[in-house]
Each structure stands twice: as C-alpha cells, then as structure tokens.
Amino acid sequence: MGGIGGGNLMGRQFDVRAQWERVRAIRADVRAARARSEQLVGMLNQVAGTLDESRRQIEALGARVDQLVDQTAAEHERTMLALRIVRDDDARAWERLWSLRRTDDYERAFTDPEPLVTIISSTYTNWRLLRERALPSVLAQTYENFECLVIGDAAPPEAAAAVESFGDPRLKFINLPYRGPYPPDREDAWFISGTTPFNTALALARGRWIGAVADDDALSSRYLESLLSQARSERAEVAYGQLRLRIPDGPDDVIGVFPPAHGHWGLQASLLHSGLRYLPLQPSDWMFKVPNDWSWAERALRIGVRFSMLEEIMVDYYPSLAWTDRPPIT
Q1: Cβ-count burial of 130 within 10 angstroms (0-12 exposed, 13-18 middle, 19+ buried)?
Q2: Which one, of 197, 116, 107, 183, lies nearest residue 152 by Cα?
Q3: Distances from the Cα of 155 to the Cαs of 112, 173, 328, in angstroms?
Q4: Which of 27, 100, 109, 200 gives 20 to 30 Å between its CA and that of 9?
Q5: pLDDT score of 196
Q6: Among candidates 290, 296, 281, 139, which has minimal Cα distance to 198?
Q7: Stretch 196-223: mean pLDDT, rounded?
Q8: 138 near 102, Cβ under 8 Å?
Q9: Does residue 326 register a pLDDT over 50?
C-alpha cells in the first residue's frame, strides 16, 4: 500500500515540475513576443513618422507645382497678349485714332442730321434663318437710312435668293469666291467665323456708322435709332446695348456690362464709327483662343476708343454652338 501511494506522489511531483517549466517557457515566450511587439510598434511609429513627413513634403511639392502651373499659365497669357499687341500694332493704331479724330469726316458722323448706317451680315449655309429672322429684323428698323451688306462666305445660291426675295434695294448681296480659310478644328474655326466676309463689308461700307447682325440673330426694331442717338449724344465711337441670350430649352438671360467685358459684349449689339474701319477682325485670333469680336473690342479698348453703353436690349442673340440646327463648319 505505502509503496504504491509513494509512487503516485512522485509521479504527480514530476508532472508539476514539468508543467512549471512549461509555464516558465511560455512566460519567456510572452516576454519575447511583447519585446518584439514593442519593437515592431516602434518601427511602425517610425515608419508612420516617415510617412507623415513624406506626406508633408509631397503636399508642399504639390503646392509648389500648382504655384508653378499658375505662374506658367499667367506667363503664357502675358506672352499671348504681348504677341497680340505686336500683331495689332497698338502704337500705330493709337496714332491713327487720334489723327482720325482731327478730321472733318470724323465730325460728320456726329453732326450729319441723318447719317447713312451700314449693317453687315456674314452668311454661309444658314440662308433660312437669314431670310426668316435676321433680315426681317433689319427691315423693321425705325431708323430707315441704312444699307445692309450681306456677304456670303462662299454661300450657296439659296443665300442670294433669300436676300433678293425681299425686293428691297437697301439689301445687297455679295458672295466671296471661296470660304474662309478656316482651321480644320471646329472650335478653332468658330473663333474666327465670318472674319473675311466682315472685313470685306468694312471695305465696302458707305455708312458713317457700322452695325452688324448675325444671320441667325434678330435686331431690336430700335437698334439703329437707339444706338445712333447714344453714340451722337455721348460722342462715343462705339455705342452698344444689351443682348438677350436665347438658349434652347432654357430661360432667357440678358447680358451686357460697362465697360465691355468678355461674355458681356457683342459686336452684333454695337454701332461703330466708320472711321474705325482700319481695325479689321483678325483671321489669326483662333491661335490665341479669342473670339474675333471680343479680340476687336480688347484692341479698341487698349488704344482708347470711346465706348458708351445703353441699358436696352439691342439684339436677340442665338449662340450658334448651342443650337443644333446650325450646320457644322467644314
């Protein structure tokens, strides 16, 4: 009995010792794992700090890149403007303006009791709206001493027929032998649309004042009367009014500010002193991504042409790019 009982106790003691050694080993493993974890946490904190620093450096670099992009864009804009000033020969244009102001012919635009006004309209294949919208608005003018020169940009025979259908001797159609030329890109071509026809009409105009109407727009019936009165009373060389912007499926908007600003001035809402005919539209405006009429206004403003605004709607303006029935420029 005693021998048997003593053997069992020794076995239990042996098992306890083994278990204790095992616990000690586990504790050592835990301490080692904790040390490795703390080391790993330290490394991760170090990596996180490095990442934060890298992030700050990247953000600073991004801000610098944005700054350089803005500076480059500003310098590009300055360079393009400088090229336009050189192209337009602003110094000589300014001298011609002041020489013009000293002539008797300049004064007659302000003093003749009923001066002739020339209205210019350039057209291509949009003869239907020319006949149904633009020319009826010209013939509805309350001021009747005008001529309207419709210049075809190598337009089809329907354009001539549209003009002749009114049987009014004040409407004259002249067709150019070839179109443009325009750059192949449609947007680039839009910037200088109608440039050559408009400049042709400038050379042929007999009026002391010059207005314009696009072949898809409609003039107010008081366009000539109101702007002529504004120009003569204010001795303005360019009198202009507001444009009612017509957008498909959208509400109308009225645009026009003083002094003229891009997007708030239009040649078709203006009346120009004919002495300014030496300032033609520029066929190279597409290279500067500037619409030809706004380029003209900027040039006139730079040399000191006198503008005056009348807060009255002068034209219903249908932006050609917004209306799908407008044929593409080819």
Answers
A1: buried
A2: 197
A3: 36, 10, 14
A4: 27
A5: 97
A6: 281
A7: 97
A8: no
A9: no
CA nearest to 212, candidates 295, 141, 149: 149
Rounded Cα gap, residues 250 and 1, in angstroms = 110
Tell me, yes or no, whether 200 and 259 share the same domain.
yes
Residue 115 preceded by cis peptide, ω within 30: no
Tell me what the pLDDT averaged over the chain comes to: 89
> Could you tell me if 256 and 327 are in contact, meaning their C-beta atoms sit under 8 angstroms apart?
no
10 has pLDDT over 70: no
If asked whether residues 1 and 123 sit together in one domain, one would say: no
How is residue 152 written in tokens? 């075809």
The Cα 109–Cα 107 span in angstroms is 5
Residues in the chain: 330
DSSP symbol at 272: E
Could you tell me if residue 328 is inside a domain?
A: no
Task: Give dist(CA 220, CA 224) in Å, integer.
Answer: 8
Backbone angles phi, psi at 155, to 5 degrees: -75, 155
As given in the structure block, the two tokens for residue 29 are 């493993």
Q: Is the bond leading into 113 cis (omega within 30 degrees of zero)?
A: no
Provide the domain limits for residue 118. 89-322
* Three-point CA angle 171, 173, 174, nearest 5°: 145
| Token digits of residue 326 | 């407008």
Residue tagged 């602003």 (tokens): 90
pLDDT category at 330 given cuts 50, 70, 90 is very low
Note the pLDDT of residue 328. 41
Cross-strand partners of 147:
118
Instruction: Decide if pLDDT at 9 tops 60.
Output: no
Rounded-to-integer distance, Cα 215 and Cα 120, Å = 10
Q: 39 and 179 share a domain?
A: no
Average pLDDT over residues 262-290: 96
Beta carbons within 10 angstroms of residue 214's beta carbon:
27
List all residues 6 or more positions away from 230 whose beta carbon is below 8 Å from its beta carbon.
236, 239, 241, 271, 308, 310
Band (pLDDT 50/70/90 cuts) for residue 14 is low
- How far is the C-alpha of 42 from the C-alpha of 36, rounded, in Å? 10
Distance CA 314, CA 316 (A): 7
